[in-house]
């Protein structure tokens, strides 16, 4: 086919395509922001935006509150060690429960952010925190107390424990 017979895009077509692509990208980027804003607005009316200790009522705040308690009690651990294990164990869901492993089969499923079974939670519960294994701060702090006793620190845990 000769060069004269080939279809040529007009500058307008290229401009329109560029704007469409850019607009689609902007919409994709805006969706999480819009969703997060809506979710925040919805949850702020139903739950406190901070914990009773004044930390943000989210994963970051729960970890920071736990670290403050751990520091007072001499329990080792770092933000990164806790965060890494929380994400691996529960994806940050404080209501996570494992109903399929050997613990669950024995009637004691792993619960909460760091997937602690009830006997371990009770044995390593840290005074001043809730007795509810689903309470994020209590769950993190008890799990870190257990990890410190067994592995030296939650920072040394890199798989199910």
Folded structure, characterized:
Helix content is 55%, strand content 2%. It has six helices and two strands, in the order H-H-H-E-H-E-H-H. The protein has helices spanning 11-44, 59-73, 79-90, 102-105, 118-124, 136-151; strands at residues 97-98, 110-111. The protein has a two-stranded antiparallel ribbon with strand order 1-2. Helix 2 packs across helix 6 (136-151) and helix 5 (118-124) packs across helix 6. The protein is globular and about 40 Å long. The protein starts with 10 loop residues before the first helix and ends in a 10-residue tail after the last helix.
Provide the descriptors you would attach to this structure in a database record.
161 residues; mainly alpha; 2 strands; globular
Which shape, going by the Cα principal axes? globular
Number of strands: 2
Please outline the major beta sheet.
2 strands, antiparallel
Percent of residues in helices comes to 40-55%
Distance between the termini: 68 Å
H/E series: HHHEHEHH
**Which blocks of ≥5 consecutive residues have pLDDT under 50?**
1-13, 15-46
Mean pLDDT: 81
Short description:
Helix content is 55%, strand content 2%. It is an all-alpha fold and 161 residues long. The chain is globular, with a radius of gyration of 24 Å.
């Amino acid at each position: 086919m000769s060069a004269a017979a080939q279809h040529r895009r007009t500058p307008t077509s290229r401009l329109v395509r560029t704007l469409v692509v850019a607009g689609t990208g902007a919409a994709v980027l805006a969706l999480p922001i819009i969703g997060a804003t809506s979710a925040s607005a919805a949850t702020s009316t139903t739950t406190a935006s901070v914990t009773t200790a004044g930390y943000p009522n989210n994963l970051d705040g729960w970890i920071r509150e736990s670290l403050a308690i751990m520091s007072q009690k001499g329990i080792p651990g770092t933000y990164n060690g806790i965060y890494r294990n929380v994400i691996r164990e529960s994806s940050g869901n404080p209501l996570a429960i494992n109903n399929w492993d050997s613990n669950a089969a024995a009637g004691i499923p792993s619960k909460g952010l760091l997937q602690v079974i009830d006997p371990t939670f009770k044995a390593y519960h840290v005074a001043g925190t809730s007795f509810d294994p689903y309470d994020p701060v209590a769950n993190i702090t008890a799990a870190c107390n257990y990890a410190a006793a067994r592995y030296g620190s939650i920072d040394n845990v890199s798989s199910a424990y």
